[in-house]
Amino acid sequence: MRIAIIGYGKMGQLIEKLATEKGHEIVYKIDSHNTKLTANLENIDVAIEFTHPEIAVSNYKKLAGQNIPIVTGTTGWTDNFDEVEKLIQDTGNRFFYASNFSIGVHLAMATSNYLAKLTENFPEYSVRIDEWHHTAKKDAPSGTALSFGREIINNHKGYKKISTEPTDIQEGELPIYAYRENDIPGTHQIKYDSEIDSIILRHEAKNRQGFALGAIKAAEFLVNQKPGVYTMNDLIKLPL
């Protein structure tokens, strides 16, 4: 594949290294300090975008207007998801979004969904989500933590909404606690707690390599698909 990397920070640099090792060609690298697209990109098969929520949607519009398939791992923009989905439909493009490209995270999410269904009939268990990331991460809670939360709500009738400032939790609210510490690639923990025991599901990334490889796999997958919006569920065929 001929790839454009939009956002050449730590993740973009790792994607370049691993994609090159897999035999792909990096045609464009848009610097992490200048990630808003202004020029047309030519002769590329797919763009991999890891930038900032403030400019992500603008980048999607620019790429979709050039009919360039888009893989994005930028989080914090999904309040505009309906707008982006319509953009992809109107332009007949292909778009792959994941808040987290780790295969292990999505295996953990499938397990969490199943556990949510099982515990729905046992109200003595309350649920909370905790997530830890490096201090450079812009959004809190993480997009992955929010995805875990939305999936729990979809599978457990006892929860109706996510609380991202969980100081006084009300009935039906699912609290998410976010922590920022140095040198943590990403850890997510879902805890089902009762007075007599706890069930803890935890995914801990050891480095960024799993995220970068997942993004490359998503790009390899996307270039062979029909127009539409795709997620990690489509890539790894989990029963979610």
TrEMBL record:
Gene3D superfamilies referenced in this protein's UniProt entry, alphabetically: Dihydrodipicolinate Reductase, domain 2 (3.30.360.10), NAD(P)-binding Rossmann-like Domain (3.40.50.720)
Domain Dihydrodipicolinate reductase N-terminal: 1-101
Alphabetical list of InterPro entries matching this protein: DapB_C, DapB_N, DapB_N_CS, DHDPR_bac, NAD(P)-bd_dom_sf
UniProt key word NAD: yes
Enzyme Commission number: 1.17.1.8
Pfam family, one: DapB_C
The keyword Transport appears for this protein: no
Keywords: Amino-acid biosynthesis, Cytoplasm, Diaminopimelate biosynthesis, Lysine biosynthesis, NAD, NADP, Oxidoreductase
Domain Dihydrodipicolinate reductase C-terminal, residue spans: 104-235
GO molecular function term, any single one: 4-hydroxy-tetrahydrodipicolinate reductase
Homology family: Belongs to the DapB family.
PANTHER family in the cross-refs: 4-HYDROXY-TETRAHYDRODIPICOLINATE REDUCTASE 1, CHLOROPLASTIC-RELATED (PTHR20836:SF0), DIHYDRODIPICOLINATE REDUCTASE (PTHR20836)
Name listed for the protein in its UniProt record: 4-hydroxy-tetrahydrodipicolinate reductase
Organism: Cryomorpha ignava
Name of the coding gene: dapB
